[in-house]
Amino acid sequence: MKQINIPLENKRIDNQFETLYTNKKYKISLSKINDLEASSNTILKIYKNNKMVFEDSIYNTHPTNILFEDFNGDLIDDILVHYSSSARSNESFTLFLVDTLNDSFKRIKGFEEIHNPRYIAEYDIFLTML
């Protein structure tokens, strides 16, 4: 699993950074809205060659990192944005599957309910570690 740390700056976060998909020149932008109680408090945008190719509003409590790991067995790292964590360090994420062939991104609804997710490609299954 690869991780990019984003520095936390005051109450509003608006970060744009290069991704691991260097050959595609994707950039990801996270814009945090101050309301942690709202159902969506962050805007995720993905750009290619300075043109926005994807946008979604998501909820998260710790917008300081994004993880990259393959979650569908296509050998392309997908995007996981931190959703929340519990007192027992059970983390959950919003998952976006990445299709670099078609420059498309697909949010997997309900993935936030899986704590400490791991994908086992050999068996094509998800594991949750509680």
Automatic annotation (TrEMBL):
InterPro entries: Integrin_alpha_N
Name of the protein in question: Uncharacterized protein
Native source species: Paenimyroides tangerinum
